[in-house]
Design brief:
Its EC number is 7.-.-.-. The protein is an all-alpha fold. The protein has 10 helices and 2 strands.
């Protein structure tokens, strides 16, 4: 397995920052009241991950080991500030909807964790790709949570898509049903915890099934090797 294939597997499934590492839970649970806000924060986080991993990898040989964490935080803060200003200029309504959670990307454990654990030890290409895959993995969890909570809570999907993509995106909103009394449990924080628990349980169940299915194949290979050696 190549380095890039392993990065894809780690970021999207085996070491997913949202489902396995359980990092960034504050924005993960607070912003996912709708698919639009979840996608907006996911894209912003992914862009920060790719940018900071790239910069940290480029400067890793010039940073004294004793002060590497403060320097990494400064790099992350600079990138987040640029993205925040761009969103303020071009996506002001979405920027208002996400509120404090855009600048709080600076303190997101995923970003500083990947900078320290991977980018500071690898070349630019793998480091940037690691940031991309971790960002996509985190964004997928965000969007799944946002979609489930929005659908169960208000019966819609992609409401407010124009906040992220412009006025033309109003046609993307899908109203599957119109509940007389919206299910507030799904929209409020307890709903986020319940949906997140279901996602983690589903992933663990899939991993367990895959592991169970692989055991017979491994046993057959082992028996075949023993037979070959004995013969």
């Amino acid at each position: 397995m190549s380095v890039y294939q392993d990065i894809v597997r780690q970021g999207l499934w085996q070491n997913n920052p949202g489902l396995v590492q359980l990092l960034g839970l504050c924005p993960l649970l607070a912003v996912t009241t709708s698919l639009t806000s979840a996608l907006g924060l996911g894209l912003a986080t992914m862009l920060v991950l790719v940018s900071t991993n790239t910069v940290v990898s480029l400067i890793r040989h010039f940073v004294p080991n004793e002060i590497r964490i403060p320097i990494f935080v400064m790099v992350i803060a600079s990138v987040v500030t640029v993205i925040e200003l761009l969103m303020h200029a071009w996506m002001y309504n979405l920027y208002q909807a996400l509120g404090i959670f855009i600048p709080l990307i600076v303190t997101n454990c995923i970003v500083i964790g990947r900078a320290e654990a991977y980018a500071s030890k690898n070349s630019v290409g793998p480091a940037a790709f690691d940031g991309l895959m971790m960002g996509i993995g985190f964004s997928l969890v965000l969007c799944t949570l946002g979609a489930v909570r929005e659908l169960v809570g208000s019966g819609s999907l992609f409401a407010g898509a124009d906040l992220l993509l412009g006025d033309w995106a109003k046609v993307l909103t899908v109203q599957l049903f119109s509940p007389e009394n919206p299910m507030l449990l799904a929209i409020l924080p307890p709903g986020a915890f319940l949906v997140m628990a279901l996602l983690i349980a589903s992933k663990n169940q899939l991993d367990l099934r895959a592991k169970t299915r692989s055991k017979p194949a491994e046993q057959k290979i082992a028996r075949a090797r023993v037979t070959h050696v004995n013969s």
